[in-house]
Design goal:
The structure is a single chain. It is built from two helices and nine strands. By secondary structure, it is mostly beta strands. The chain has a single domain, classed as Porin (Beta Barrel). An eight-stranded antiparallel barrel has the order 1-2-3-4-5-7-8-9. A hairpin with a 7-residue loop joins strand 3 and strand 4. The protein starts with a helix and ends with a strand. About 8% of the residues have low confidence. This is Outer membrane protein beta-barrel domain-containing protein. Keywords: Signal.
Amino acid sequence: MTKINYILLVLLISCLPVASQNKGVEKDIYNLQTGFLGIWFNHEHRLLNQISLRTEIGFDGGFRGCSGCATTYALVPAIKLEPRWYYNINKRTAKNQKSNNSANFVTLGIDYHPNWFVISNHDNVFIHDQVAIIPKWGIRRNIGNSNFNYEAGIGIGRRFYLDENFSDTTADLHLRIGYTFK
């Protein structure tokens, strides 16, 4: 073996105990979450020590109103994909805090809202097929020493209307409370 191979082998072996001490992101967790405007079920799968891939399905809600017209609410299907980097999870794990991916995170959210159906208080309400790409910062914490958690996040990105060849700027602010299943 060459000198470089020996150095790489020694570095690899010296890093193994460090990687096993910090558990990092949970291997697989499932969450049911609700917020002011919706309900979602998601799954997070560990890709690396601090990175998970979150897949989510649920209903996003919204209101629309104007002067002289009735307020319309709508719930629409939402499918989301988020690779998440929990950048301070190792520090929190070292303090022996219950994980369930309870840490600060940065993500690039990809949200798809199809025009399959709309649950609304009015007839003939529809949405356009749309995809949003939104970089976000967020925080997730356990409530006490239980499997209940809360999550908040904020970001600004672009929304693309697939059937109109149009895009605009969009924001995402989410405040959720949920339960983690293992």
